[in-house]
Design brief:
Layout lengths: L1 E9 L8 E3 L14 E6 L2 E13 L12 E2 L8 H13 L4 H8 L2 H4 L11 E4 L1 H5 L9 H12 L4 E2 H8 L3 H9 L3 E4 L16 H11 L6 E7 L5 H14 L3 E5 L6 H12 L3 E4 L5 H12 L5 E4 L11 E7 L16 H12 L2 E6 L4 H8 L3 E6 L10 E6 L11 H12 L3 E5 L8 E4 L16 E3 L4 E3 L6 E3 L12 E4 L3 H11 L5 E4 L9 H11 L4 E4 L12 E6 L3 H5 L5 H13 L10 E6 L5 H9 L1 H15 L6 E9 L4 H13 L9 E13 L2 E10 L2 H15 L9 E6 L6
Parallel strand pairs: 9-14, 9-15, 10-12, 10-13, 11-12, 13-14, 16-26, 17-24, 17-25, 23-24, 25-26
Antiparallel strand pairs: 1-2, 1-4, 3-4, 3-5, 6-7, 6-8, 18-22, 19-20, 20-21, 27-29, 27-30, 28-29
The structure holds adenosine-5'-diphosphate (ADP) and zinc ion (2 copies).
């Protein structure tokens, strides 16, 4: 039908395309894209976002419904924000509505609720200012709060009052009832700023190169060893951007890294720094999102999804640890925040700095080809020296719970010298499986092609792939023998061995199981930092961010999976992990040593990494990729399908292949599969893959944008769950 105005509304969810509505009855404001509307949908209502207006619709006149109301008077998203989201939707072939709603804080995805969170501060009312605090001497807590507020006419945070003056809900209630206090917003804090370091020549050069380019787009790869002072470089650049009155976005891979970085930025900038990550309460996220959007705040540190935060005066993006896998979302809208930050910088016309001690091969190739400018920080900034790496050959030795005699000896020497040692094993639990010594039965997961890990403390068998749990058996379910034995080791078992071997020395285990209680990680870390715990065993959790300056020995117990893993990126990830773990050690005046247990000490990649470092490793790894025509020399799209019925996924992918192999550009692509996924059965579903590859990006994306229209129409499309992963990072 035709009408004056028809709204094109995008909704969250898997549906591609927009939905047409007439403007709300009482519409008086302008209909600007980026505003939200409440619309009738089926039997209920939903929140959608206006993409554009039009005067035509394919919906017949009588069927076109009216939007119920306009939720925002001014657009939440500016054209520049929508442009970035549209790019992402096109590039990843994901429905635009879903992309947009992913980028909005949860609270804005639904109808606003009447109850508004009370502001975070508290200040005195006129009555409160006039009251004589001594008249409250019978209520000492109320008195204390009033006195504190009389000294702070602008108000104080309720959280601070709770901490320092015993403000409880009951005390607050009484004060509110007496009309002495009222909730209030707090003014932005200015903090005393700390003096910056005198940069060393390499740092200065890096800062200068970026500084020269603050007025336009340029990508930089800041390639600096751990402790080389990359963060110092970020701090200087952010200060520059701030001085121009512009905003800076700093992306970090993990929530765990934000508090430390936050503190450093806060202290240095003398400026409030906002933080966005998934562990924040919804209300808090929404507040920060608006503060950035309205330019009330200027510095944002955040994890992956923070890349979409509207920042109208953005002047710099930093992506710390750019190689980290956490930047890739592996579910739903499968995007890579690092890659999106590049497009965002380009669209904005500002520089982007990708920092890493172990850059991804993708970024190294971009630097080689001149698309990124590479800045090197080859030495540690303070006087600390780099740790040395050495291999321990465990082919013939007798291992004790995964620990070689040589390693035990080194540990003993370190402990006796009064120094700290840290062991790294990326496997929690007691053992990766149990076996029956009588009949060979294994703890297979009933829902996956995988084994259930034995968690001895919790007396559980636990599948780390699907979450399935069951009680630890007392006898073999197959033959009844009580002789069940662990195979391999996890951190729990290594802890046990270490306690037996070094009974005199306090030990801490840091993994998801030992730190599940709130505050327990901080407590453990504090003890380690104070030096009262000399022996530390941990998983991935200790590999990132935390500095352990008095650790002089780092042992990596098992790296061999990385050399022969099913994924072609396995060796790259292994090298990154080794150097990351190694980087935790010996930051102060004491040099660190890193010992790596392996059954393949002669492997060329391992040799290069330990003897010549990451650059030499990366060069060889890159040659291997080029010979095999793998990323970064080729571009990939992975189509996954899964279903309860075991034959459907492959059937669907075969239909897809047949239906889409004749499309334009298909001749320029390689199709691999369909094949069963590396873990064919997971969480009760059978899974299959189709990999599509090309050495040119353009034909691959052109083909995909046409092909995706066909996928949903294939006979088995509704019988399987399928997904498209552009630039897949894991072949799982
Ligand atoms: P990275 O981010 O590369 O790991 P950091 O910026 O955290 O490195 O710096 C490592 C250590 O060196 C920190 O303790 C930091 O305070 C110190 N540092 C950095 N730059 C300098 C400098 N120019 N002079 C002295 N110390 C520095
Ligand atoms: Zn048995
Ligand atoms: Zn499972």
């Amino acid at each position: 039908m035709e009408s004056d105005t028809i709204l094109k509304i995008a909704l969250a969810g898997p549906l591609r395309g927009f939905f047409d509505y007439l403007p709300p009855e009482d519409n008086v404001t302008t209909l600007t894209p980026g505003c939200r509307f409440e619309i009738p949908f089926g039997r209920s209502s939903r929140v959608g976002i206006l993409i554009s207006t039009n005067n035509k619709s394919s919906v017949p006149a009588g069927k076109l419904k009216r939007a119920l109301s306009q939720l925002d008077q001014a657009p939440l998203l500016q054209p520049s924000d929508l442009r970035l989201l549209k790019w992402a939707a096109d590039y990843y072939e994901h429905p635009l509505g879903d992309v947009i709603f992913h980028a909005l804080p949860v609270n804005l995805r639904k109808k606003p609720t009447a109850s508004k969170a009370s502001p975070p501060g508290l200040r005195l009312t006129q009555a409160g200012e006039a009251v004589d605090a001594e008249s409250l001497s019978r209520a000492p807590k109320q008195r204390s709060v009033i006195l504190a507020l009389q000294h702070h006419p602008q108000g104080l945070a309720k959280s601070k009052l709770a901490e320092d003056h015993d403000l409880s809900p009951a005390v607050l209630r009484s004060l509110l009832d007496k009309g002495l206090v009222t909730p209030c917003e707090l003014p932005p804090q200015t903090l005393p700023s700390e003096a910056a370091y005198q940069l060393n020549p390499q740092q200065q050069q890096a800062v200068d190169r970026v500084r020269e380019n603050l007025d336009g787009f340029q990508a930089f790869l800041l390639n600096g060893v751990t402790g080389s002072g990359k963060t110092e470089v970020y701090l200087h650049l952010v200060a520059d951007v701030l001085a121009q009155g512009r905003q800076a976005l700093i992306l970090v891979p993990e929530i765990g890294l934000t508090p430390q970085l936050l503190q450093r930025f806060q202290q240095r900038m003398g400026h409030e720094v906002a933080v966005l990550h998934s562990a924040l309460a919804d209300g808090e996220r929404e507040k920060i999102w608006h503060a950035m959007r309205q330019m009330r705040q200027h510095i944002l540190i955040g994890t992956r999804s923070a890349v979409f935060t509207p920042m109208p005066s953005l002047g710099l993006i930093i992506v710390d640890e750019e190689h980290d896998l956490s930047y890739k979302q592996q579910e739903g809208f499968r995007y890579n925040a690092r890659d999106i930050s590049l497009v965002r910088a380009q669209q904005t016309g500002c520089p982007v700095v990708l920092g890493s001690a172990t850059p991804s091969l993708e970024s190294l190739r971009n630097a080689q080809e001149g698309r990124y400018r590479q800045l090197d920080l080859p030495k540690r900034a303070a006087d600390a020296s780099m740790p040395s790496l050495a291999l321990i050959d465990i082919r013939n030795g007798h291992l004790k719970g995964g620990l070689s005699p040589a390693l035990l000896k080194h540990l003993e020497q370190t402990l006796q010298a009064g120094e700290q040692a840290m062991l790294f094993l990326n496997r929690r639990g007691y053992a990766p499986m149990l076996t029956c010594h009588a009949c060979g039965w294994l703890t297979d997961c009933p829902r996956c092609d995988a084994r259930m890990t034995h968690h001895r403390q919790q007396k559980l068998l636990w599948c780390h792939h699907c979450g399935h749990q069951q009680r630890e058996p007392v006898a073999c379910p197959s033959c009844g023998s009580p002789d069940l034995r662990p195979l391999g080791q996890g951190t729990e078992r290594v802890e046990e061995i270490l306690r037996q071997h070094f009974p005199k020395y306090p030990l801490a285990r840091i993994d998801r199981d030992s730190t599940s209680r709130k505050g327990s990680l901080e407590k453990l870390l504090k003890q380690v930092h104070s030096g009262s715990i000399p022996l530390l065993i941990g998983t991935q959790m200790i590999a990132k961010g935390h500095h352990f300056p008095s650790v002089t020995l780092v042992a990596i117990l098992d790296v061999d999976q990385g050399l022969f893993g099913a994924d072609f990126r396995a060796s790259e990830r292994m090298a990154q992990l080794i150097l990351q773990v190694a980087g935790r050690a010996g930051r102060a005046e004491r040099p660190g040593r890193v010992l790596i247990q392996t059954r393949h000490p002669d492997h060329p990649l391992m040799q290069l990494l330990t003897q010549q470092g990451y650059a030499a490793f990366a060069k060889l790894a890159m040659q291997e990729r080029q010979m095999a025509m793998l990323p970064p020399y080729a571009h990939q799209v992975l189509i996954r399908a899964e279903a309860n019925r075991s034959d459907y996924p492959e059937l669907f992918l075969k239909q897809l292949l047949e239906g889409c192999q004749k499309l334009q550009h298909a001749a320029e692509l390689e199709f691999w599969g369909p094949v069963p996924a590396p873990m064919e059965r997971r969480a009760g579903k059978t899974r299959a893959h189709l990999l599509i590859q090309s050495n040119q990006r353009l034909p691959l994306h052109r083909w995909l944008s046409e092909a995706i229209e066909i996928f949903a129409t294939l006979p088995h499309a509704r019988k399987v769950r399928w997904s498209v992963d552009v630039d897949p990072q894991e072949m799982l």
